[in-house]
Design brief:
Layout (H helix, E strand, L loop, with lengths): L12 H12 L6 H13 L3 H7 L9 H8 L5 H5 L1 E4 L2 E4 L12 H11 L6 E5 L5 H9 L4 E6 L2 H13 L6 E5 L10 E6 L12 H4 L15 H6 L3 H4 E10 L5 H10 L4 E5 L5 E6 L1
Helix pairs in contact: 1-2, 2-3, 2-4, 6-7
Length: 281
């Protein structure tokens, strides 16, 4: 592996970023962006402020260690400890699935479904660091929500994020096994379950760092849908919707599983034009 760039005394941020970008090309599709995010973190500022006014500052010594971590394929979000999602920023770390931009399609779909209405009760199955639930609560200030996850590590991040966002009194988080033990009805049910087949290849930054239990769901990637969907009719309030993230090849299979439960499916595409969400009503 090529050694990371050094932050020699007096070296400017601008030159150090260029050097880091060259090193990161071997492991990242976005080497310049990675370098800028790491530099902003090292300087204790935002990327925008870095680019607008800090490029001629001396490069901080700690930057080289951050680049060295990235060169082992460690995700940027784990190194910086934060990830932006929708309109909120979330604390994340090892043991937690990192929020993806494609998952914002679930929030877009929910907004389109409710229109001028607002859900009052929201359920987020497999909440991770609170990603979907907290993004939804930010959209509907009058709503209350429940986030369920099997991981205590994830729930710890979720509770921290709810507190940091001022939503702790509106978001309850509970350890659980999908829908087991949940009662009542919800206007909006969100879920981003594991959907990767056990033999599907993944890039090292995902396979070697993110929790496998949040990624894999049997040989065809559908095991968790088979557990979640039978419970949805009893949990959905009248006029409500269950909105599930899917792998881009799974729209027909998940739609059929919903139809078997008497639900009506609709498929929505992500920013890349790939099927990403099944809405069930």
């Amino acid at each position: 592996m090529t050694p990371p760039p050094s932050s020699a005394s007096g070296t400017k941020v601008r030159a150090t970023l260029a050097d880091a970008t060259r090193h990161l090309q071997s492991i990242s599709d976005t080497p310049r962006l990675d370098a800028e995010l790491l530099m902003a973190h090292a300087l204790g500022t935002t990327r925008d402020r870095l680019l607008l006014g800090r490029l001629d500052d001396p490069a901080p010594e700690r930057f080289a260690a951050l680049v060295a971590r990235r060169l082992t394929h460690e995700p940027i979000a784990y190194i910086t400890g934060t990830r932006a999602f929708w309109t909120i920023d979330l604390a994340v770390g090892p043991g937690v699935l990192i929020p993806r931009p494609d998952s914002e399609t679930l929030i877009e779909t929910a907004l389109a479904w409710f229109g001028d209405r607002a859900p009052q009760r929201i359920l987020d199955l497999g909440t991770g660091p609170g990603t979907l639930l907290l993004a939804a609560l930010a959209e509907w200030p009058g709503a209350q929500g429940l986030g369920v996850d099997a991981s205590e590590i994830a729930l710890g991040y979720a509770r921290h994020n709810a507190e940091a966002l001022g939503m702790a009194n509106r978001a309850d988080f509970r350890r659980g096994d999908w829908t087991a033990g949940i009662s009542g009805r919800f206007d909006l049910i969100l879920a981003n379950p594991p959907y990767i087949g056990s033999e599907e290849p993944l890039p090292p930054q995902v396979l070697d760092h993110e929790p496998p239990e949040a990624l894999f769901a049997g040989r065809d990637g559908l095991d968790d849908y088979r557990r979640i969907l039978p419970a949805l009719p009893a949990l959905l309030a009248p006029g409500g919707a269950a909105i599930l993230e899917i792998g881009w090849t799974q729209s027909e299979a998940v739609s059929l599983l919903g139809q078997e439960q008497g639900l009506s499916p609709s498929v929505y595409k992500d920013m890349g034009g790939r099927p990403r969400v099944v809405r069930l009503t």
